[in-house]
Design brief:
Elements lengths: L2 H24 L5 H20 L1 H25 L4 H7 L2 H10 L11 E4 L6 E6 L2 E7 L9 E8 L2 E6 L5 H5 L5
Parallel strand pairs: 3-5
Antiparallel strand pairs: 1-2, 1-4, 2-3, 4-5
Helix pairs in contact: 1-2, 2-3
Length: 176
């Protein structure tokens, strides 16, 4: 390979690496574009050093000096990125709400609820207006049936189908 090919390929890889790093802001690739961009910058610098040591040093200084410029561009372009738009639409908050549901499930032990969906054996049960993911002991329970929470194990609420509770049962229900 002649000497000018190293210069041409080095400059091309530096430009391609910078573009891939910029593309990582807008395309959520799981870091693949970032790794390819950094690899392009490194290999481009190696090619510039193979062409001439001083050209390689100038290229390295140029890459290091453009770092703050790229960081400023990142802050300027941040509102338009996919990650920023996901955060501003509240998709991250929905994930937090989903994790916050099982915070204190012990309060449902011994309580009566009504199935919202069929439990096959898992499904949704309404306990005092709160929708709780629940499991049966292995049998299926149709939607709209009364169940009682018999056990809470970790983040699992285990229920058993019961007859319709009368008001006396609800008042004297032991919540252990």
């Amino acid at each position: 390979m002649d000497n000018t090919a190293f210069l041409t390929l080095g400059l091309f890889l530096l430009l391609t690496g910078a573009l891939l790093l910029l593309a990582e802001l807008f395309i959520t690739s799981g870091g693949v574009l970032m790794v390819l961009g950094l690899g392009g910058l490194i290999v481009g610098l190696v090619f510039l050093f193979r062409y001439d040591t001083w050209v390689g040093i100038y290229g390295l200084v140029g890459v290091l000096a453009s770092g703050p410029l790229l960081l400023g561009m990142l802050f300027w372009l941040w509102p338009y990125t996919t990650i920023s738009q996901m955060a501003s639409t509240g998709q991250g908050e929905q994930a937090e709400d989903a994790l916050a549901v099982p915070m204190d499930l012990q309060q449902f032990k011994g309580r009566y609820g009504k199935t919202i969906t069929a439990l096959r054996p898992a499904g949704m049960v309404d306990f005092d207006g709160r929708r709780i993911d629940s499991l049966t002991e292995g049998m299926m329970v149709e939607a709209g049936r009364w169940v009682r929470c018999i056990e809470v194990s970790g983040n699992r609420v285990i229920v058993r189908q019961v007859d319709k509770p009368n008001s006396l049962d609800l008042e004297t229900a032991s919540i252990n």
